[in-house]
C-alpha cells in the first residue's frame, strides 16, 4: 500500500474527530487510521475561539464523551477546560500520534473502480499531500474556520475604534476602561457581556435586533456535588448525564407541544433574575422557545451585570456606524471604543473541501441525510452532525459507534462499499440541522443536505430513540446498498 494509505481517514481533530478516533481505537483496534487537521493543535472550535469567557452552552455531563467522564462539578465549562479535556482524551487513547497537523483538505474524491477515497491536502509549508482510504469520516463541524459572519454595516469604515469578530479575537486585547458595544443576542454575546464587565470594561452594551430566550443554570451541579462524596466518578457522570438528557428532552418536547407554558416558565425566571426595574422587552422574543436554540448563563451572570448597572441591553436596529460609535434607527447613539460583531457563523461543510464521486461534484443540497449521519449516493462516508436541541457530542458519539458497527459488519461479510440510496422518498424543506430559525442556519441552508419525509431520512433530534437505533439497532437497512 502507498505510504499515505489508511483504512479510515478522519477530517478534523476537534471534539467530533477525536471522539471518532477514540471509538475506532476502542472498537476496531486493527484498523489503521489518520486524522488530517488544518490547525496546529487539537480542539477544533475550542482551540479556534479565544474570546473572553468562552464556554460551552451545553452541560458537560452530556457534552462530554460517553466513554470518558467529565470529572468536575462545573456545569458549563470554559474553553480552556474543554480544550484540555479533548486533548487529554486523545492522549489517553493514543490518538495524538495519528494526527497530521497543518493539513488543509482541498478535495476528496471517491473512486468506484478502486473502492476508495482519495484526499488532497495542502500542508502548512505549501506542499500538497494525497491520502487514500477505504472510509472517510468528516468531523469538520458545520462552519468556516476562516471567518465569521458580519453584515455589511453602513459607515463601517468611518468608525475610529476597533471592530472585532469573536472568531478572530486579538491576543491580549486591552479593553479595560473602554466603552464596548457587542452586536448580537446569541450564546457568544451573552457570554461576552458579563466577561468583559469582569475584565474591566468601562461600559458594555449588548445591542440586539431581537431578543433571545435566556435561562440561568447553576454553575455547580448540586447533584454532582452530593453524589461525588459517595460514588465513583463514572457513576456520578452517568447519573447526571441521564438526568440531563431527560431534562433536555422534556423541555424541548414541552416547548413544541405547549409553547405558551414554556414561555411563561422562562419569563417568570427572567423576571426574578432581572429584579425590580428590569425591562422584559429585551427578553421577550417574537418566536417560540426552541424555534432557535435556547441560551443559558451560569448563576445568572448576565442578569447580575444588568441589575448592577454594569451592562445594558438595547433592542434596536442599526442605521449606520460613524466615527464614535453606532447610530440607531430610533435616533439613539451608542458611543463605543470597541465594537464586537457577535453576529454569527458562515456555514460550511467538509472544511470547504470539494467533494466528488466518480468525477462528479457533489451538490450537497441535492442529497439527503441517512439517519443524520451519511449522505445519499456518497459511499463509505460518515458526516458527523451533532444535535441542535441538545449537546452536540451526544449525537456525534452514537453515529460514530453505528458507523463502526457497519464497518465490522462489512468485514464479517467481506464487503467493501456501503452507499445510502434514497428511493421513493419525498424531500423535506428542512435540512439536516432541522427547523431552527437561527440566522446562520437560514443563511447556510444551501450548504446542507436535506431531510426526507420519513425514516431513515428524517432527523429525529431525539437522543433516546436515536441511541436505541444507532447503538443497538440493525446495521442493515433497505436504504443501504452494500457490495463487495
Characteristic terms for this protein:
484 residues, 9-stranded mixed sheet, FAD/NAD(P)-binding domain, 2 domains, 12 helices, globular, 25 strands, alpha/beta, 5-stranded parallel sheet
How does the SSE layout of this entry go?
Layout: E1 5-11, H1 15-27, E2 33-37, H2 45-48, H3 60-63, H4 79-92, E3 99-101, E4 103-111, E5 116-123, E6 128-138, E7 162-164, E8 179-183, H5 187-198, E9 203-208, E10 214-217, H6 222-227, H7 233-257, H8 259-274, E11 295-298, H9 301-307, E12 311-315, E13 318-322, E14 325-328, E15 333-335, E16 338-341, E17 354-357, E18 360-361, E19 369-370, E20 374-375, E21 381-383, H10 392-413, E22 417-420, E23 427-431, H11 439-443, E24 450-452, H12 463-471, E25 480-483
Parallel strand pairs: 1-2, 1-6, 2-3, 4-17, 6-21, 7-16, 8-9, 8-16, 9-12, 10-11
Antiparallel strand pairs: 4-5, 5-6, 13-14, 14-15, 17-18, 19-20, 22-25, 23-24
Helix pairs in contact: 1-4, 1-10, 5-9, 7-8, 10-12
